[in-house]
Amino acid sequence: MANKPKTILSSPVGITLKKNAPLLMGTCFIALTVSNAILSYGHPSLIYKMWIVLFGFLLPGALVFSLEEKVATHKQEPFPRIPSWMWMTLLLLGAILRFYHLFTLSPWPFSDEGLFGYFATLLEEKWDWQILHSVAQEPMLYSWGLYLFFKLFGHSLTTFWFFPALCSFTCVPALWLASRKVLSRGTTFLLLSLMVFSFWPLYLGWFSMQQILLVLWECLALFALGGYLDESKNSRKNPWIYALAILTGTGFYTYLAWPFVALLIGLTVIGNRNQSLGGRLKDALKFLAGVSLVILPLVIAYIREYHGYINHLWAFGAPHPFLDRFSLPLVCLKDFFWGAPVNFFHYGPLWGGFLNPLLTSLFFFGLIRLFRRYWEPLSLWILTAFFVLFLPTVLTNDFEIMRLTPMIPLLLLICALGAQTLLDPVPLKGRLLVFLVVLTASTCLDLFHLVYVYPRDFERNPSYFDKARSPEFNKAYSLLKPLANQQGPGLILLNFNPDPYDQTIFVASYSFNAAENPKLDPTRAKWTGVLANIHEEPYFKKVFPEGKWFWLSEGLNKRDGGLILEIVPVSQFNKPLLSRWAKADLSLKELTRLVMEFNVDPDQSRMLAVLDKAYPSFKGDPLLEARYWRIRAIHHAAEGKMDEAIEDEKQGIEKGLPMAHLYNDLGCLLYQENKLPAARKAFEEALRLRLNLTDAAENLRNLPPSRK
Length: 708
Fold this sequence. Notes:
Layout: H1 12-19, H2 21-41, H3 46-67, H4 84-99, H5 111-125, E1 132-133, E2 138-139, H6 141-153, H7 157-179, H8 185-197, H9 199-204, H10 211-231, H11 240-251, H12 258-270, H13 277-305, H14 309-313, H15 324-337, H16 357-372, H17 377-389, H18 392-395, H19 408-423, H20 431-460, H21 462-465, H22 471-487, E3 491-493, H23 504-509, E4 527-533, H24 537-543, E5 548-551, E6 563-569, H25 575-587, H26 589-598, H27 605-618, H28 622-638, H29 642-655, H30 660-672, H31 676-688, H32 696-702
Parallel strand pairs: 3-4
Antiparallel strand pairs: 1-2, 4-6, 5-6
Helix pairs in contact: 2-3, 2-16, 4-7, 4-8, 5-6, 7-8, 7-10, 8-19, 8-20, 10-11, 10-12, 11-13, 12-17, 16-19, 25-27, 26-27, 27-28, 28-29, 29-30, 30-31, 31-32
């Protein structure tokens, strides 16, 4: 009797509603979609939002709740039959959307992408078994995979972006494996369709970062979980528990958000209703032992190399107002459905939410379906999973939507169940057509967002991306790559950059950079590319009159004037000087690695030791001296030794070249130490120089008036 379908539509009003259910359900869906569209793409006032909540959410929601039938299982088939060719077409379209025009979304990598490409490139030069890298102590599994692809397919931006695209595509069959034993064939088709065409999985697959590997690993772990749950119905001996433990354990090597996935899987093993209490405890111990064994090297690495990053993220490490703890979860929910108005760069949508208005409506339909069937194991599991995977918003103290990428399969599953609610009143033969119409409209919105809105925003609003994506390096690559195609590899000197954390130009140019790539012969280089500060340009013109220079930071209002790219043809006259510069640049390669590993670590002793060792390569050359002492000043300042940093800047001016950006840096350091007369003098010296593109004039105006 418990399995008998029930309905609340037995009254005269209910019977009338049931007769018109397709029309009413469609009307509710349209009303909800229009409301979501206004919130996503418009800017309604508070009073309008209140009306939208009442008439666009509450009333349609209540009506859908009354129309939704209380059936006994989620495994009912929404479609009569899905032809094989539709499954194959779905897979083919998934491949096309992920591999066609890989450069559409990303005209240039983000600095975070450069981090993974940088460490993968170092592995090409010399393999090591380092498990963690960078100041955030990111697990190395993604970089290892990228290294393998560089080995197999060559080092290029195409390979760099092909690897995450392949991970994104592989999520489709992996999700099919994960869902086929839990969901009906029709619901699986709905879920896979959303995985193939929706914005968030497509968007994530076009970034060369570790989050997409986590989603793939999550689908594989859920496949093992489904196999474990299915086998536990029929057998006490369940070998799936070992596969589940291995996949869950190795998932810790994908991304820092994985512990929440592992927690969800562990809770599922403990709460498995197909097992007795004793069986659950035995399987839980096997699972815990297997996971612990797999993650032991990672734990040891964390203990030995801990940089304090978890403390930095921990929400309860510093006092916060009680109400502020609710703001971050609300902002993340808004980013899911309508887009969050954040005034700093984040990896979120730029036009509405991650779910477009149609998918948001399906999500709310899905929630109604889950609450109407709350007693079912799958409903309880989905609601629990939403809570567990949403925990990063409560436990961390800053806004980073990438920590919620484990929710992608879950959000799409809820949308798929919502699509079933929408289709239930529709006659069986017409359901597939209705779904395809909704899916087509949803796909058009997401593709417009993905291939039109998102790429163009980088050009229209570069200040939003700030240091996350460098327009200067993008411009430099567009100049260097054609030159390499015409004349072969050159010497590209990149380690002189005083802020080397963004290694995207290193990754992009590595295949034709004879100064960095040990497979290339630097003595055969016919040209040299040097990244320099704009104030060094007069010196370049004097020493290399045959060279060409390009102001990469033009229009970006950099406080030190920004970067230029100097391209110098190698000749017998300038080759000795360029060779010396290349040697000096190479002497800072270890410094770049340390910056990538430790960034602004208060202990800069290792970095300063590298600089001490490298100084003979810089000594005596005015340009190299100026660069050396400026870099040294930055590292002393990062250590809090401001007097030493001030002396370094003075050395750069005295032994190097008296340039405006050096005087401006000196003035800023003196101002921080409250040495106002000396700071004023430094800013005035910057303004006296013929070439001055710094903000020294503004800094001078901001100084307190001198006392006479």
